TrEMBL record:
UniProtKB keywords: Hydrolase
Name of the protein this chain belongs to: HAD family hydrolase
Gene3D superfamilies in the record: HAD superfamily/HAD-like, Putative phosphatase, domain 2
GO terms, molecular function: hydrolase activity
Listed PANTHER family: 5'-NUCLEOTIDASE, PHOSPHOGLYCOLATE PHOSPHATASE
Species annotation: Sphingobacterium ginsenosidimutans
Entry annotated with the keyword Hydrolase: yes
Amino acid sequence: MKSYKHILFDLDGTLTDPAEGITKCIAYALEAKGIHTPDLNSLKPLIGPPLKDTFMHTYGFDEKEALACVDKYRERFATQGLYENLLFDGIPKLLEGLKSKDYKVYLATSKPEIFAHKILQHFAIDSYFDFAGGSALDDSRPTKTSVIQYVLNKANLVDPQHCIMIGDRKHDLIGARETGMDAIAVLYGYGSEEELMKEKPTYLLHSVDDLIQFFDA
């Protein structure tokens, strides 16, 4: 294993299981467009990617319509959906272990940074992170690549060869590749093995316990 010093985590589907909140908020936004979703489980594949892209690519909205849906989504998410969320078993143990071994730990999420900070605080894991970065409410960081680059810049990480990105969707792996770092794809989140393997991750792990063992090695 390479000498990684800096560990970047995705949030949704990697640290937390946000299915209830995200699916309810997407359904809420779609309802405003006259689209009813009787089965919230049908929205689970939409967890992870940037919301604007999801509304454009999945529902055929133009950019203006998609941004309006994002605003509607956030209307519910800011007060309810934010807390309809669960921490995956083993995550505190994983983070505590990383810090005890002097790794630097960062968050790189497509979720708006202001919401990401509240979620880390809600689960009392914010103290493990050296920096937590997310997307911007003004859509100035619209891709996972732009979020990862923002975290690198903010943390003054000039050598991505010492960094590794951990995530459950292809966007995490693409972002890692485009910023010059290795990536761990995790299968306990929302990306399928087929989706993840197409992006040729450096490592593919099945569970949080696998991550703990990986960094214990």
